[in-house]
Amino acid sequence: MDLFLPSNPVPTRYSDTVSESDSVIDLIFLCSGSSELNNHLIHPNWHLTSDHVPLTVTISITEEFIQTSKLSLLKKSNEEEVFVKEVISIINSLDTLNLLNQESLEQVVCLLVSRINQAWNANTRKVNIMKHSKK
Questions:
Q1: CB count, 10 Å around CB of 99?
Q2: Which of 2, 31, 62, 83 is deepest in the core (most CB within 10 A)?
Q3: Residues 11, 22: Cα–Cα separation, whole Å
Q4: Is the pLDDT assigned to residue 72 strictly greater than 80?
């Protein structure tokens, strides 16, 4: 736990009783060590009829890409069978006799990846991701 002081240190509870003084008794739990979340404010003018004032934190929300579709193969489908056969054929056709250095190995691996991607794209279909889709 860390103690962080707000940028405007004022009381968070205003007493209705004359003999009691205003106090700071409210807690807010934020991520320790996070400069993004440790920027809370106390709003003394917002308490209206409550004896406690609101505490706020500004959380920046960044734009995020949410994938709504993906390429998929149905299990035990003809497309899956064709894809597996193509991958086996691709692997069998690789020329691995001249793997003499790292550069030649990288070329063979890049070729393998490229051909498998082509087989994947040729045999899959685009499906929409919904809240009931399997993970």
A1: 15
A2: 83
A3: 6
A4: yes
CA-wise closest residue to 121 among 75, 70, 45, 78:
70
- Kindly give the pairing relationship between strand 69-72 and strand 125-128: antiparallel
Half-sphere exposure of 34 (CA within 13 A, CB side): 14
Contact assessment for residue 20 and residue 55, using Cβ atoms and an 8 Å cutoff = no
Only one residue has tokens 């990846």, namely 113
Burial of 53 (0-12, 13-18, 19+ CB in 10 A): buried
Helices (H), the chain: 78-93, 102-123
Q: Pull the structure tokens for residue 95.
A: 């020329």
0.85 cut: is pTM over it?
A: no
* Identity of the residue numbered 122: A
pLDDT (average), residues 49-68:
79
If you compute the radius of gyration of the chain from its CA atoms, what whole number of angstroms results? 30
